[in-house]
Amino acid sequence: MLSKHRTSGDPGRIDLHMHTDRSDGRFPPDDVLSRAFAGKLDVIAVADHDLPNVLTPGVHVRGARELRVIAAAEVSGSHAGRELHLLVYFPGEMPEEFRAFLRERAKVRAVRYDAAVAKLGFSDLAVADEPARVGDRSLTRHHLYNALKTGGHVRDLREGFALLGGAGVVPLIELPFVDAIRAARAAGGLTSWAHPSLVDAQAWTSTFVAAGLQGLEGVRPHVDRRTRNGLKVIAEQHGLLLTGGSDWHGWHETPLGTFAVTGERARDFVARLDHASLQAGLATAARPAPASTPPHSTAR
Ligand SMILES: [Zn+2]
Ligand SMILES: [Zn+2]
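Above: query sequence and zinc ion SMILES. Below: predicted holo structure tokens.
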């Protein structure tokens, strides 16, 4: 139970990265919360793509269990022509200025979705609906894939993402990644680069730290030992937190709670989040650093 963990200063089992059906996850927010309880997690953060948090931050209670929800979002930006993702966490409520910022980002996604629909050229693909156009939900490549599948234009995920991966089909989100970091820090958020590859992290961490990056999401499922150790070394070199999460979307069999961060890393993150100095995190020192062009993307 969290209360027991709390008295020992141990936050328990934490998962700082999951999605609901407000972006490209499968289940509604309340369902995700129930699954987090069932998965015996103690601290969670729902980080939907470019959306304000959907669950009330703070401690939720069900029966004898307590579970702490952290307000979060996953913001898409671009760097050197590539789409990158930023996790942003808040110690309490997500400030209204940042909620407004995210709603604008979600509106940009609706425009991007419509541009992709036009580019694909199938007459039966619907354009963005009202909730997407006003920024209440965010449209992703997954939604495009679903539309293609429903229309019978592709047979499976592989075909779908091959089609969507074609040059210029899905426009690049133009927000510079460093601007996403700065906006998050200006709003008092704690920033962690979502699922960086080792090559990207080696090339760009200095640049992003200069913009205010505070963490790397280095603890996650299906990461090989070399990458995990490499990210740990980079985090140590730059004084960054290592954050962790499952990036659970609910589309596969694996239940929420199968993956959890525990021990020192979980404690470090929660302590940092709770630290009052976070509120004063406004620094964005401009330090020039080299950029290069690595491969591979996990863009949504
Ligand atoms: Zn992501
Ligand atoms: Zn994600």
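Residues 74, 85, 194-195, 298, 300 surround zinc ion (ligand 1) (CB under 6 Å).
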